[in-house]
Amino acid sequence: MDFIPDPSLDAFRHEIREAINADLPTDLKEKQIAYAGSQNEPEDSLTWMRILDKRGWAVPHWPVEHGGTGWSPMQLYIFNEECTNAFAPDICWGSSHMCGPVIYTFGSDAQKERFLPEMRRGDYYLAQGFSEPGNGSDLARLRTSARREGDRYIVNGQKIWTSSGYFAEWGFFLVRTDPTVKPQAGISFLMIKMDTPGITVRRIPQLNGESDLCEVFLDNVEVPAGNLIGEEGKGWSYAKFLLDHERTTSSFIFFNKREVARARAIAEAETQDGVPLIRNPVFRDRLTRLEAEATALEWSVLRELSKEEFKYHPTAAASTLKVAGSRLQQAICELEMDLLGARSLRKFAYDAHDRDAAPLWPDYSETVTPRALVMRASTIYGGTLQIQKGIISKLAFDL
Ligand SMILES: Cc1cc2nc3c(=O)[nH]c(=O)nc-3n(C[C@H](O)[C@H](O)[C@H](O)COP(=O)(O)OP(=O)(O)OC[C@H]3O[C@@H](n4cnc5c(N)ncnc54)[C@H](O)[C@@H]3O)c2cc1C
Fold first, then answer.
1. Could you tell me if 215 and 260 lie in one domain?
2. Which residue range(s) make up the domain with 303?
3. Do residues 274 and 300 both lie within one domain?
């Protein structure tokens, strides 16, 4: 493939950058700079989606008839890169990259008309109700049941690790509608309103001081049968389609590029005995390796994008990008933490004491440790490292 940048994309990049600079509210940007890569507040995701929607850019990768832009993969890449570099919040991934594509691919016309505009406009947040205690990687064995009674389903069970479940207005759930057939064939995909009687959401305290992840308990929850997406018993194939969407976009390339630059800035600013840490051979070696890995990852992502028939489908490459990107993310965060030493604990120190006290430590130390802690999860969500390796061995090597 030809890696020579296409000059016609420069004008596009310029237009996007100008628009983001004009539209991104300062408070959202500042919050992101402090929190970058830790967890986005879901409210901020919706605010940013609403702003983007005014330009028709909230879900640029969707088909044009459902509000997408018709941009090429390279244009989408540039758009996402510019958003990350500007410290814009993530948009609601559940609607834009997971449930939305399932609905416009498998939903009825009525469901498309009902849900897609609301999701695109950022009217509400969507939670992903897949994982259960004991059924994460082994999702096909999920136990939450949905029994059909007339024009509704009665849902019972428990989900866990539901990101932003406490804030979400809707959730897309995998439920077992037929326990008598082989596990994959008995699963269905249901839209459930999170304030339906019988639903209890409990937030889980996390290692990094946040509590975005939730447990969701469903006790005789009545769900209209019209909320079934596609066909009953086909939920497993829809979920696979959705998870492949998630994996293909999970190289974290923009985060990695931005954060490796931030690690360099920290290494240049921090000193030991008056000497900048960038001149310490151990730190310099680690940083240089990570910079090389980020460049290699970017070129690998671009190689995938350049393939003429680039589509979201399961490939060994998608899993490889996820493995490489998530490990790089962790390594960069760990380097930032090591560069700062105890000062990387600034957030915890200030949370425990007086946040308004004179800042003894630089701003870039604000959330380094919480971010490194939350990044431990990047090799778990969206399919664990070991599961990805299994996929690679199967798809690439036929093992
Ligand atoms: C931050 C975060 C956000 C998440 N958000 C959501 C969400 O919004 N919605 C949702 O539904 N879920 C969510 N999850 C759950 C996530 O999808 C699961 O944690 C993940 O699929 C792993 O499942 P598990 O936790 O049950 O671990 P397990 O599947 O029990 O795995 C435990 C260990 O065993 C290994 N293992 C399991 N099976 C195999 C195998 N066949 N071969 C080799 N090794 C194996 C795993 O790699 C792992 O190391 C989130 C998780 C995290 C950490």
1. no
2. 250-397
3. yes
Q: How far apart are the first and last CA of the chain?
A: 29
Assess whether 265 and 379 both reside in one domain: yes
For ligand 1, the distance from its centroid to the CA atom of residue 42, given in whole angstroms, is: 22
Looking at the fold, whether 157 and 21 belong to one and the same domain comes out as no
What's the gap in Å between 176 CA and the centre of ligand 1? Answer: 19
| 127 Cα nearest atom in ligand 1 | 8
Average pLDDT across each block of 10 residues of the chain; the chain has 399 residues. List them in order.
Answer: 74 97 94 69 95 97 96 93 94 94 97 97 97 94 97 98 97 98 97 98 91 96 98 95 71 92 94 96 98 95 74 73 95 95 75 58 78 92 92 87
For residue 347, the model assigns a pLDDT of 67
Domain termination residue (choose one: 40, 69, 91): 91
Q: What pLDDT sits at residue 176? A: 98
Where a domain ends, among 91, 117, 147?
A: 91
Residue 242 in domain: no
Q: Are residues 380 and 261 in the same domain?
A: yes
Residues 6+ apart with CB under 8 A from 271: 277
Residue of 40, 102, 161 to mutate, ligand 1, most atoms within 8 A of C-beta:
161
Counting other chains too, the contacts that 183-188 makes at CB distance below 8 Å and 24 or more residues apart are 183/140, 183/141, 184/140, 184/236, 185/233, 185/236, 186/233, 187/140, 187/142, 187/233, 187/235, 187/236, 187/239, 188/146, 188/228, 188/232, 188/233, 188/234, 188/235
* Residue 45 confidence (pLDDT): 95
Q: How far apart are CA 341 and CA 58, in angstroms?
A: 39
Going by alpha carbons, the residue nearest to atom 26 of ligand 1 is 136
Residue 98 lies in a domain: no
